[in-house]
Amino acid sequence: MESSENQWGSRLGFILATIGSAVGLGNIWRFSYVAYDNGGGAFLIPYFFALLTTGIPLLILEFSFGQKMRGSAPFSFTKVDEKWEWLGWWSTLVTFVLISYYSVIISWSFKYIYYAFSGAWGSNPEAFLYNTHLQLTSGIGELGGVNLSVLLIVLVVWLINFVIVYNGIEAGVEKASKIFMPILALLMLIIVVRGITLPGAVEGINKFLEPDFAALLNPGVWLAAYGQIFFTLSVCFGVMIAYGSYLSEDSDIVNNAFITALANCSFSFIVGIGVFGILGYMAAQTGQPIEEVVAQSIGLAFVAFPKAINMLPAFNTVLGVIFFVALGIAGISSSISMVEAVSAPVMDKFNLSRKKATTIVCGLGFIASILFTTGAGLYFLDIIDHYNMQFGVAVIGILEAVVIGWYYKAEVLRDFFNPISNFQVGRWWDIMIKYITPLFLTYMLIRSFVMELN
Ligand code: PFF
Ligand code: NA
Predict the structure, then answer these.
(1) Quick one: which atom of ligand 1 is closest to the CA of 95?
(2) Are 45 and 210 in contact (CB under 8 A)?
(3) Res 139: pLDDT
(4) Global pTM value
(5) What integer pLDDT is reported at residue 137 of this predicted model?
(6) What pLDDT digit, counting tens, does each position of 47-83 carry?
(7) Nearest atom, ligand 1, residue 24 CA
(8) For the CA of 330, the nearest atom of ligand 1
């Protein structure tokens, strides 16, 4: 099966696909508001700490682990020892749960492309999103019916996921990434240039970067930084292990990991500046303080942004369309990586063809997505996302570092990837994997768990 169906065609294709997975909805809306909520400019300190001590080390680990074992996460862990197979399946499950709502958020972006054309959100995007568009109710008790028009678009999103992953690595994922990534970069550049040249932008950007150093004493801020790093780099989801397994045996690892991480984090940062430039403009127009125009969670992209677009001095429609097309493309290039990471273990374990495995995964994924198209969709989304990230991803991060660091031995993996890499990684990498990552993460997970109980 070493066909182009399970092999990257070029190094550039691999890098664009990993950046495609990394850059997603998380960079455009999640990073900005998480940073803002957790100390603004000071958030960059735990963020870079988590990036350098855990994010990049785990990215190197996942690329090389997949490349060495030549299989999906469960398959690769089985090769370390059969008793670790479940860890791979756990990350597969977490990823499956994640796509089930991630695809729904992408479908909102798609619908908002159309709304941007027609300005359908009107003068009150908040009421539009919650009452008219999603028809959300406040809790499970009022589950409400499935929103059929959203469901239809969710089906379209799943069909796109399906067609791309069904076509295999080179002809599907790689080809799509080569088309999507340059377009995404161009569209975001337009938004950012527009954002920073608006009156009031500077105040918005200052607010975004203004450090609140007291936040650094809060363990929740550090956990948020780790969570954002895992989410944004797509590590601990089985994605980068699967992508690594399609590399030829002598492909560079270290350099590719640094390029992916650097491209992803600079993208977040630049987009954050653009987003806060636009929010600063809106604050200046309305005379409100920035605190009031920044919205929580999905509100940033689907409420605050439409509001700002309404106020732009010119080209509102065009800029609105550009923004939501960019969001949709960023989302799809990430969701295909999740579909790949869930399909690959199914192929490995049950010896199924790619075509059968992707059909099953996308079919089940679509069914799971239906929950988030109901009136209680956002309610479920918030809760499930919270637990999926904390008890899914953070725990996988700890266990992955322990299993590879201590059981398989970090030194052994490093001796595998250093000789094939352009530049060499020193003993610091072993220390990060064996000590810093598991100790720090465990400590913070317990601290935040205790806080949650109180
Ligand atoms: N990195 C993506 C983002 O920032 O939106 C999200 C993501 C993609 C998470 C793939 C997990 C994953 F497996
Ligand atoms: Na993406």
Answers:
(1) 13
(2) no
(3) 59
(4) 0.95
(5) 66
(6) 999 999 999 999 999 999 999 999 999 999 999 999 9
(7) 5
(8) 5
Statement: residue 1 has pLDDT above 60 = no
How many angstroms separate the alpha carbon of residue 170 from the centre of ligand 2? 17
Between 433 and 33, the more confident residue is 433
What is the reported pLDDT for 122?
86
Q: Which CATH number fits domain 40-453: 2.40.50, 3.30.160, 3.40.50, 1.10.4160?
A: 1.10.4160
- 338 Cα nearest atom in ligand 1: 13
Residue 329 corresponds to which amino acid?
I
User: Ligand 1 pocket check: which of 109, 229, 334, 338 to mutate, most ligand atoms within 8 Å of Cβ?
Assistant: 334
3-state secondary structure of 374: strand
Q: Which residue, 377, 268, 335, is CA-closest to 34?
A: 268
Task: Enumerate the domain spans of the chain.
Answer: 40-453
Q: What does the block give as tokens for 195?
A: 């954002």
Binding pocket residue ranges, ligand 1, CB within 6 Å:
21-22, 24-27, 95, 98, 231-232, 234, 237, 239, 334, 337-338, 341
> Which residue's structure tokens are 């000590």?
435
Which tokens hold the place of 153?
A: 């678009």
C-alpha of residue 336 to centroid of ligand 2, in Å: 9
The whole-angstrom separation of Cα 387 and Cα 265 is: 24
For the beta carbon of residue 451, count every other beta carbon within 10 angstroms. 12
Lowest mean pLDDT among 134-138, 184-188, 322-326: 134-138
Distance from CA of residue 380 to its chain's centroid? 19
| Other beta carbons less than 10 A from residue 350's beta carbon | 10
Q: Which of 164, 173, 337 is the pocket-test mutation for ligand 1 (most atoms within 8 Å of CB)?
A: 337
| Tokens at 47, concatenated | 């963020």
Residue 7 carries which DSSP code?
S
Q: Which pLDDT score, from 0 to 100, does residue 140 have?
A: 59
The predicted complex's ipTM stands at 0.98
Cα distance between residue 149 and residue 128, in whole Å: 15
Residue 384, phi then psi, degrees to nearest 5:
-65, -40
Joined tokens for residue 222: 């550090």
Residue type present at position 236: C
Tell me how many helices (H) and strands (E) the chain has. 24, 0
**Residue carrying the six token digits 């600063």:** 280
Nearest to 114 by CA among 154, 162, 160, 153: 153
Q: HEC states along 386-417?
A: HHHHHHHHHHHHHHHHHHHHHHHHHHHHHHHH
* More confident site: 176 or 450: 176
Q: Tens of pLDDT along 385-407? A: 888 887 789 999 999 999 999 99
Nearest listed ligand to the Cα of residue 233: 1
**Are 241 and 73 spatial neighbours (Cβ–Cβ below 8 Å)?**
yes
